[in-house]
Automatic annotation (TrEMBL):
PANTHER family in the cross-refs: ALL TRANS-POLYPRENYL-DIPHOSPHATE SYNTHASE PDSS1, GERANYLGERANYL PYROPHOSPHATE SYNTHASE
Lineage: Eukaryota, Rhodophyta, Florideophyceae, Nemaliophycidae, Batrachospermales
MF GO annotations: metal ion binding; prenyltransferase activity
The name this protein goes by in its record: Prenyl transferase
Extent of the signal sequence: none
Listed PROSITE patterns: POLYPRENYL_SYNTHASE_1, POLYPRENYL_SYNTHASE_2
Keywords of this entry: Chloroplast, Isoprene biosynthesis, Magnesium, Metal-binding, Plastid, Transferase
Length: 322
């Protein structure tokens, strides 16, 4: 797998990140500490920190990642994890990254507090980077998370939802954090504004591709590959790229969605209809388009040896399907 190479260049930093995350959530209250530690011990692929570390290398002359870039990667993962805690409450999910969700182990009240605590922790570490532009850039993400959740809640089981609405929702829920973090990494590297904006686009379109692949895996993937039970988006009425593409071909699928899968076999029937449509392939094509836009946006780094790692990250996101 080509991705093994680029991970090896940042592997030491990712290992340090895993260690630091469990130490950064040092809540004084034992339940808050236990719930936070439980999340980070679950691991995950750490895609977001990996992207930030690669962008940091691409915007530094000597490729040596600075301490503040590493801290930014940690902050990003804390923010992402906080959002997952709240997502799981809303979705009533029982597992995440192969382990039981916080609200299932403790309670909904504790999970809400744990998520809030992690957001607060990330804000404190963010302030300690002593860079106002980075603070402003990352802070906007918290607003975007809330916006994404509200938008999603308003359009569940809405078979008239457009692809533009889906992409916009995916930006708020996933791509916003990656885009803002990539731009923040470049701000810390003190590159010119044009390159900062290029890094933002790289993160945005990688983030959109990542979400689309996630949505494909929700239809075809196992619990192990996705980190949560498959088809959960479909069951919850969250209409994603493969479903929207399949809807253009199938009136029967539209009928099932409109009646919100009221019969026992409706979900299985809907999945079969999506499988037999061109929805999955069209969604994959859309993800590839976003990855190509991401790679093209980083042309300013094309002469650097680190550029191939930025390309390989895009390939790695696609490889999650195989």
């Amino acid at each position: 797998m080509p991705s093994e190479f680029f991970f090896s260049t940042i592997n030491e930093d990712l290992n340090s990140l895993n260690y630091n995350l469990q130490n950064m959530v040092g809540a004084k209250h034992p339940i808050l500490h236990a719930s936070s530690e439980h999340l980070f011990s679950a691991g995950g692929k750490r895609i977001r920190p990996a992207i930030i570390l690669l962008v940091s290398q691409a915007t530094l002359n000597n490729y040596i990642i600075h301490t503040e870039h590493k801290r930014l990667a940690e902050i990003t993962e804390i923010i992402h994890t906080a959002s997952l805690v709240h997502d799981d409450i809303i979705d009533e999910g029982l597992t995440r990254r192969g382990v039981t969700t916080v609200h299932s182990i403790f309670s909904t009240k504790i999970a809400v507090l744990a998520g809030d605590f992690l957001f607060a922790q990330s804000s404190w570490y963010l302030a300690n980077l002593h860079n106002l532009e980075v603070v402003k850039t990352i802070s906007k993400v918290i607003i975007d998370f809330a916006e994404g959740e509200i938008r999603q809640g308003l359009i569940i089981f809405d078979s008239t939802m457009s692809m533009n609405q889906y992409v916009e929702k995916s930006f708020y829920k996933t791509a916003s954090l990656i885009a803002a973090s990539c731009k923040s990494a470049s701000i810390l590297s003190q590159v010119i504004l044009e390159q900062q904006n290029a890094c933002y686009l790289y993160g945005k379109h990688l983030g959109l591709a990542f979400q689309i692949i996630d949505d494909i895996l929700d239809i075809i993937g196992s619990i192990k590959s996705l980190g949560k039970p498959s088809s959960s988006d479909l069951k919850n009425g969250n209409l994603t790229a493969p479903i929207l593409f399949a809807l253009t071909e199938s009136q029967e699928l539209q009928n099932l969605i409109n009646k919100e899968f009221e019969d026992k076999e409706d979900i299985k029937c809907a999945i079969l209809l999506i499988y037999n449509s061109k929805g999955l392939q069209k969604a994959k094509d859309l993800a590839e388009e976003h990855i190509q836009i991401a790679i093209n946006s980083m042309q300013f780094a094309a002469d650097y040896k680190i550029y191939k790692n930025l390309v390989l990250m895009g390939q790695y996101i696609l490889e999650r399907l195989y």
